[in-house]
Specification:
four-stranded mixed beta sheet, 2 helices, 107 residues, alpha/beta
Length: 107
C-alpha cells in the first residue's frame, strides 16, 4: 500500500514548505462530498498525528489515515501546468467514475 508524489509535485510541495518556513509534508485524505460521493482533501502537515501513515517520495512526506488509505492506495499526486492552469492532479487507480466538474469521485 502506498501513496506517491511525482517529482514535479514533490518539488512544488518542497518549495511551498520552504516559503512557509515550516512543515513536515502534506496530508492527503478523502471526505464524503460532491455529486459522486467522495472528494480529496489536501493540506500541509505541521504536526504528525499518532494515527498517521506516512510515505515518502523525492524527499517529501505524504501523510494519510487508515480509512482514507483504503480509497487512496496506489494514488500518485502530480503537479501539472497546462497553459494558464496549474495545480495538483490525482492519479487514483481506484476511481470508478468522476463527476463532470472533476471535484468528486466514486470508488
Amino acid at each position: 500500500m502506498a501513496i506517491t508524489l511525482s517529482e514535479s509535485a514533490a518539488r512544488h510541495v518542497s518549495n511551498f514548505i520552504a516559503k512557509r518556513g515550516k512543515g513536515l509534508g502534506v496530508r492527503l485524505a478523502v471526505k464524503t462530498s460532491g455529486c459522486s460521493g467522495m472528494a480529496y482533501k489536501l493540506e500541509f502537515v505541521d504536526v504528525n498525528n499518532d494515527e498517521d501513515i506516512a510515505f515518502e517520495s523525492f524527499g517529501v512526506k505524504v501523510f494519510t489515515d487508515a480509512k482514507s488509505l483504503a480509497y487512496l492506495d496506489g494514488t500518485e499526486l502530480d503537479y501539472t501546468k497546462e497553459g494558464l492552469n496549474e495545480g495538483f492532479k490525482f492519479n487514483n487507480p481506484n476511481v470508478k467514475n468522476e463527476c463532470g466538474c472533476g471535484e468528486s469521485f466514486n470508488v
